[in-house]
Amino acid sequence: MLELPTDLPADLVPLSWLLGVWEGSGVIDYETADGHLTGEFAHQVSFSHDGGDYLNYSASAWLLDDSGARIRPLVAETGYWRVARPAGAEDAGPGLLPASAPGRERTVDDVEALRNAEGGFDLEVALVHSDGVSELYLGQVRGPRIDLATDAVVRTAGAKEYTAATRMYGLVDGHLLWAWDIAALGGELASHASARLAKAE
Q1: Could you tell me the EC number(s) of this protein (predicted)?
Q2: Distance between CA 77 and CA 151 in Å, rounded?
Q3: Is the pLDDT of residue 4 over 60?
């Protein structure tokens, strides 16, 4: 049974089922020009909120050996997830600029007005990876399912080639299931990793 915090901003209601810390394991399976990469990994994902109209996101993964012991860290990510809506004068930003007009608490009706033609809510997700990759995903949440695709990918000079990605998240029997497809290291967009996570907190 999902328990929602009573102080949850209305903008986060469509994403509320993500809140908490999720842990589990998954499988890497990706073909590159240099060969076929496979393996199992442990994964921890956290979705939290601090009163803003976005979710804080962080995730870490560790490669596992045949006995299930962690061998070494893989990529870590941090970022923000939010239901897409135009920023108004009542919103702060960019940077540290305060709002230029008084705000009011947004309501469920305000959020309902953001539903798209498919009955879901458009999403904007900004992620930064520990390996020098930054991604902007666009997509939607419809009930307990999220589909995302990169709109932009930026890499540092030292990062490996990575050009596009899609992600799918779903709540199934109380577990968070996800799949991540990538286009990297000269390869086309293809299946890369998937995992099944249980609520830990």
Answers
A1: 5.99.-.-
A2: 17
A3: no
